[in-house]
Amino acid sequence: MIYFEFDQCVNNTLALLISILTTTFIVVTTSMATVAHIFYWDTSYVLHYLKAKLKGYRSSASQDNVYKVFITYDTKDPWVSERVLETLRVKLEVEGEKAFPLSLEERDWPLGVPAIDNLTQSIRYSIKTLFVRTKAYANPNAKAGVFRLAMYLAHQWLLDENLDVIVVLMLEPVLQNSHFLRLRRRLCGESVLEWPRTAAAEPWFWQNLRNVVRVDNQTMYTSTYSKYFTCSRERD
Hints:
By secondary structure, the chain is α/β, with parallel strands linked by helices. It is 54% helix and 11% strand. It has a single domain, classed as Rossmann fold, CATH 3.40.50. It has eight helices and five strands, in the order αβαβααβαβαβαα. A five-stranded parallel β-sheet has the order 2-1-3-4-5, with helices on both faces. Strand 4 (166-170), helix 6 (179-188) and strand 5 (192-194) form a beta-alpha-beta unit.
């Protein structure tokens, strides 16, 4: 009869080393995936900002160059671009008693400047930022990168300067139950607009849009949030 001592076939040092390496790999991979998911846009903003500074880019805007509205939309979609350039631009910038100077990516952004720099200046030197939402421009994909980055910068503007510049225009009835839209409607429902479906609704829509662009968002807040921002300003 032959007896085997199984302990002789086990290298404790090697087993411990493999166990440590495997555990470390799993922990590091899981942590990196979690951090990348949570802080992706924060990291992206910082990296683009540092890259622009290292390359020596400077802002071409000045305090005297103030737009009424910066419009961010899906420039890769011809249907959306036509709505913005041929209809929205004309109604706000050309027609009406008062013209609203607009900042448009396809028309006003200087070439060769990083998108993060253009976005920062467009939002900073515009009184309102109008987000034109569609199905493709609301999802977290490559097309929506500029949209999400602009939304992040607008929220940073709200947190840093206590200025709410966000106005949402929905060309398509998408993401009606999204957390963002529910929060905006609860905070300032008048800042969320839908493109008119009938010709009879167009006059009311354009008048409503002009009013929202003209009026400070905080004056349209619900009573609960108005009290909060009033207290915040008093503390400042």
